[in-house]
């Protein structure tokens, strides 16, 4: 097979709903409910994107089928780091599960050349009654390491997790931060030739996420092959040269990471607004305040997602919280390379934001001629006077800025700015 | 040397990759250790429960069957007679229920990590085995108290132990695969084991059953094991090469049946559990 690490040909995975109806009530209800939700996600993609992909097929016997993967084919060479993006229910996790040999495909074939390490979840197999030390070994062996490998790396793992003092305490006494650090520390020391990672970086606080990304970056330099599923566009853009966009069980796009991300966002976001009330992707926060929607409007108050470089952009959000709360609001704008281009914060501008009622609207106006041409995505966060993050939603809406068609007036810098030029 | 893995659809009766299970032996060890340690970590009496249960059982059986019902125990003191059966039976009961729920209790592992699925029921046997050794020591002690020296037949004990182990594991595999799909089975198994107990000559001797009905008892695979076990230790009952061979054949058949059924259902575990 030469330098190919993974080769997938016509991989399909179909779940049959019918066979589950044979179970007793309690099991049937649980199963059909879960799968009905999955089906709804899949059906929703149909109507939204106007596509004609028939995901749910009725067999002559009246069984319903769900196609989690349809005829997926691709090849990954050794040392490539490939990001996989797509909405929930697109088939990303199913693909990783099949490649991890946890479930079998219905059709097709996959050839793997090299030792695989799968990180589909952090802390798998941790037992609360066992100590940190014991869980390191247990978790390590579960992930596929041999005992002597764990022995060799034990001290590094403990140092990475920063739990030296708590090694012999049962993990049920650990804080959630320690738990997650330890779990990741063990997983980070897996040394497989091929690494499959499924959205595990979504847990943990900001410092932890930074640490994880740093470690992932290190992996990049070791020549390992990585398949990385994530909703965090920034991390995908940072770590992966190549990305695949999956939707409804198929690979829609496969190529340069930035281009794929750009295209994904135009598939995803419609016309400059997003309802965040039930949004859960890349969301964190301790509450109680909540951001209910986000939209981008032009100076005339119209909701748009494309702006000319010389018009102002107004970000509107809905905030739900107690009347009279003083808030700290942040708006982070990132480009498709994941770089933070701008960060707007009301305290930086010495502007007070006090909620006038339970459901308030906030408008943040960004002047014209600041952002360069490109696609940007918005991360918003909401905090209270004590700097506790109440709600944070990452990369939930995108917009584009374009330069005028006559001539190329794209600035060289990350941002545009007007300066005054005086000749003396 | 690159190891190439080919992933393709699986269906029907499949070959069992024993070599792979052997490669994962460390995992079996760790999972077994985890079950035992976790169970006894916060238990004050911990290991003593393993002895207390059989003591109470034999006291009750001796009273009810030995004294009140006056059943025969082939000349052996009733407590010793029943303890012999109880030690073997407890292993079967504990291991069978542990194996049955093993997949269900490790749902997260099954859906997130790869390893040959046989590892899980294999590791679940650990508790039964440890408890067996503890109660076996107790049995030897009791034998000494009653003045029973080990007989020549004790040479065959390891063989019967092995046969009991393979029979238990075979049945355990079958039930564990079944309960992955039909979760209620874990409740049914408790009930099933109870009934099974009474249909096996554990608390009473087989000689109490009328000769014509004794054959029926031999439809129960556990009867073979209990009888064999009692024979090797206490010299009770009849045994010939035929019967020993028959027991061996039966236990191998059950083991293989369980293994192949498990392997056949294996690919669906992560999907249906």
Describe the structure in brief:
The complex is a heterodimer of chains A (424) and B (273). Chain A is built from 8 helices and 21 strands.
What does it look like?
The complex is a heterodimer of chains A (424) and B (273). Mean pLDDT of chain A is 81; it is low at 19-25 and 44-62. Chain A is globular. Chain A has helices spanning 25-49, 92-99, 132-143, 147-161, 176-188, 206-220, 233-239, 257-268, and strands at residues 4-16, 56-58, 64-77, 81-86, 107-113, 116-119, 194-198, 225-229, 242-247, 250-256, 273-275, 283-284, 290-297, 306-308, 313-320, 326-335, 340-345, 353-354, 359-366, 374-384, 389-402. The relative contact order of chain A is 0.11. In chain A, the strands form four sheets. In chain A, strands 12, 14, 16, 17, 18, 20 and 21 form a seven-stranded mixed beta sheet that branches. In chain A, strands 6-7-8-4-9-10 form a six-stranded mixed beta sheet, sandwiched between helices. Chain A is α+β, with helices and mostly antiparallel strands and 424 residues long. Chain A has a domain at 273-402: Coagulation Factor XIII, Chain A, domain 1. With 273 residues, chain B is an all-alpha fold. Chain B has one domain. In chain B, 71% of the residues lie in helices and 1% in strands. Chain B has twelve helices and one strand; from the N terminus they run βαααααααααααα. In chain B, helix 2 (25-41) packs across helix 6 and helix 3 (49-68) crosses helix 4. At the A-B interface, helix 2, strand 5 and helix 3 of A face strand 1, helix 2, helix 5 and helix 12 of B.
